[in-house]
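Hi V.,

You were right to ask for the full record rather than a summary. Here it is.
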Amino acid sequence: MSDIRWFADTDDNHSQWYVERMRDLAAEGADLAGEARLVNAMVAPGSRILDAGCGPGRTSAVLHALGHRVVGVDVDPVLIEAARADHPGPTWLVADLATLDLVALGEPEPFDAAVLAGNVIAFVAPETETQVLSSVRRQVRADGFIVVGFHTERLDVAVFDENVVAAGLTLEHRFATWDLRPWANDADFAVSILRVP
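Predicted structure:
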């Protein structure tokens, strides 16, 4: 369980706190679907989508409700348990993104797209960013895409771009928000669309 950064920085109750936080935001009517709206706009109806680092399932749930075939993966069993309880429909799996092998987990069909929302890439264990991007890339079909969003204070964009190249991916577009505001070098958030060759 030590392979994501927040476990080193918070107490043992962080996962449950995060579950309750997401539930509270949903109950308050907060917009938790921005990432899903972007992915939905980029894929055909009924696409197969991987939510890599899905947490308690907010993005997967929206994509599933829109008719996509969604698999949510997270290393934290507490978050996956909450996803199963709150959002029946998608397939939920506990797995480490750095060593992800969905064929071995009974999901052999390639994905049309993958999404890493909620700072996932900035929370993986240090020095595993390329490994995570590579293992997610292996799950996505040729000419599919991966969308990655993160706060730039958590992960340097230039370092991320090096990881992208090392993982065999191509940066196709970058925006400053999930609702596609233009990218600028001083932006505090980056949404990168990566193409799988």
